[in-house]
Design goal:
The chain has about 500 residues and is α/β, with parallel strands linked by helices. The chain has 16 helices and 19 strands. The strands form 5 sheets. It has a 6-stranded mixed beta sheet with strand order 5-6-7-3-8-9, with helices on both faces. Strand 6, helix 5 and strand 7 form a beta-alpha-beta unit. Helix 4 packs parallel to helix 5, helix 7 runs antiparallel to helix 9 and helix 11 packs across helix 14. The longest helix is centred in the middle third of the chain and has 47 residues. It starts with a strand and ends with a strand.
Length: about 500
């Protein structure tokens, strides 16, 4: 089996532009990676291909669910709501169900206490239910969000055994490389399929952009030359027009009038005008050549504006102690200080107590220390409020927010377009608004969740230059290593160790 799309398009209601397409591509058995910037249409495409979203233009053959023997399952980014058919999975103890539970280490009671699970545990349950349904088309949207390294390896083992049409949106480069045989690279709702895993496809994309950059430079040079030549020929044609006029010639100067008549008869007087009119077509062709040599924008500039660290050397001090986590579990920690310019990375397995420690930290922040906190997930109400607050900003402040969003690898024009924004774009707006408040402490729980690969690199660069104190909780080890200088590691027994 394979899925084939032809001129696939989709537009959200009231959106001024199309969110997707046209896309024509083939998705065979095995895993296809779908990569691109936040808001490029990846989630929309997954939902259509899995049968979760209808009302699209073009065709998908065969249609998931509609075609006999063809079913689709879409596993969303967010973990706010229980997955579809969770109740059925909870009471199924067949061999296939037990195998999935064993691979992903899903406890039997998880389905009955979904609201109490960590986001990493919810993600494992979410993927487990999707695999248990055994669909012919399985679409996974950021399956490694929230999960630790051990769980990621378990997910890889489970996904490697899947034998249908797999569609994977992920910022996990290693997962894309290990699973995918081809990748669809998306930009502005359109896609280019490249053979090979993500690293191979990304290298091919970079080579193509390098070639296009040279072509654009050459085309712009040609266009500048043609514009100059067009002006020169227009001036020459104007002089020719003035020369052929007899208005300024003395009525008795028959020789001068005869020369003008001869030029008109032989066509010599019209050469300049014809050459000038020909330039218009050449300039138009050169302009089209420049336009077709598309090179993605690179947004640069300052991010932290006038932010400065606190005048206090130590802004938060956590006394040695323990916190109860329920079910006879607790987290124990030594005395921990957060200095005014410290960049602290917090890591540990799912369920070890990272978010519990962060909540305790927030409760200890002094009232005179301005801080910004970004949670793991944004609820639907929070997302609506972020957009509502953005609209209420005065034009100058809104411009500053959009400038900062641009530095995080998102197009400000899309943010203002009224289109449905991705979770990654909403988090960028939230961070940009927080920065405008000039915080002296920034706390972020899983900041790379929902971000595309380019945005993670941009965030890494931005946070590395942060002048104030940072506390970052993440399972992305390379990200923490690049941004942090102090590390708090929590093991499964709830013990916190500090490494400077």
């Amino acid at each position: 089996m394979q899925l084939t799309t032809t001129n696939l398009t989709y537009s959200y209601e009231d959106a001024p532009t199309s969110a997707l397409g046209p896309i024509s591509a083939t998705f065979p058995m095995g895993w296809t990676g779908i990569v691109g910037s936040n808001g490029s249409g990846k989630s929309t495409l997954l939902r259509i291909l899995s049968g979760d979203l209808v009302g699209f233009g073009g065709s998908v053959v065969p249609r998931p669910i509609a075609a006999p023997g063809t079913s689709g399952s879409y596993c969303a980014q967010a973990t706010e709501h229980p997955p579809h058919r969770l109740d059925e999975f909870a009471v199924d103890f067949s061999g296939s169900s037990m195998k999935i539970r064993q691979i992903l280490e899903i406890d039997d009671d998880w389905a009955w206490r979904f609201e109490t699970l960590s986001h990493g545990e919810r993600k494992r349950l979410q993927v487990g239910v999707a695999l248990w349904m055994n669909p012919s088309v399985l679409a996974l949207d950021e399956p490694t969000n929230h999960v630790d390294a051990v769980t990621r390896d378990k997910l890889l083992a489970a996904l490697s055994a899947y034998d249908g049409v797999g569609l994977l949106v992920s910022h996990d480069r290693e997962l894309l490389d290990e699973l995918c045989d081809q990748c669809l690279f998306m930009r502005d709702g359109q896609g280019v399929m490249r053979n090979g895993n993500y690293t191979q496809g990304h290298a091919q994309e970079a080579l193509e952009y390098k070639t296009v950059s040279r072509e654009r430079k050459s085309a712009k040079s040609e266009l500048a030359h043609l514009h100059s030549e067009q002006v020169r020929r227009a001036n020459e044609a104007a002089r020719a027009d003035s020369r052929r006029s007899k208005a300024s010639i003395n009525s008795k100067d028959k020789d001068a009038k005869a020369k003008i008549d001869l030029a008109i008869f032989t066509g010599q007087d019209g050469k300049a005008g014809k050459l000038s009119s020909q330039m218009g077509a050449r300039v138009k062709a050169a302009e089209q050549r420049v336009a077709s040599a598309f090179v993605p924008k690179v947004y640069e500039g300052g991010f932290w504006l006038n932010s400065v660290p606190s005048k206090r050397r130590v802004i938060v001090s956590i006394r040695e102690g323990a916190l109860h986590m329920g079910e006879d579990r607790s987290i124990r920690f030594p005395k921990l200080d957060i200095e005014n310019t410290a960049h602290i990375g917090v890591s540990g397995p799912n369920g070890a107590g990272k978010s519990t420690l962060v909540s305790h930290l927030i409760s200890l922040v002094p009232d005179d220390i301005p801080y910004f906190y970004m949670p793991q997930e944004l609820s639907g109400e929070q997302s609506k409020q972020i957009l509502a607050d953005l609209k209420l900003l005065d034009p100058a402040s809104r411009g500053q927010v959009l400038s900062l969003v641009a530095r995080l690898n998102s197009d400000p024009e899309r943010i203002l377009s009224g289109e449905l924004l991705s979770p990654g774009e909403l988090r960028k707006i939230m961070l940009a608004k927080g920065v405008l408040q000039k915080p002296q402490l920034i706390i972020m729980d899983e900041p790379t969740n929902h971000l595309d690969l380019g945005s993670i690199e941009a965030l890494e660069a931005v946070l590395g230059d942060c002048p104030c104190a940072l506390v970052l909780v993440s399972h992305d080890a390379p990200f923490l290593q690049a941004v942090s200088t102090i590390f708090w590691r929590i093991n499964m027994d709830g013990e916190v160790a500090e490494q400077v």
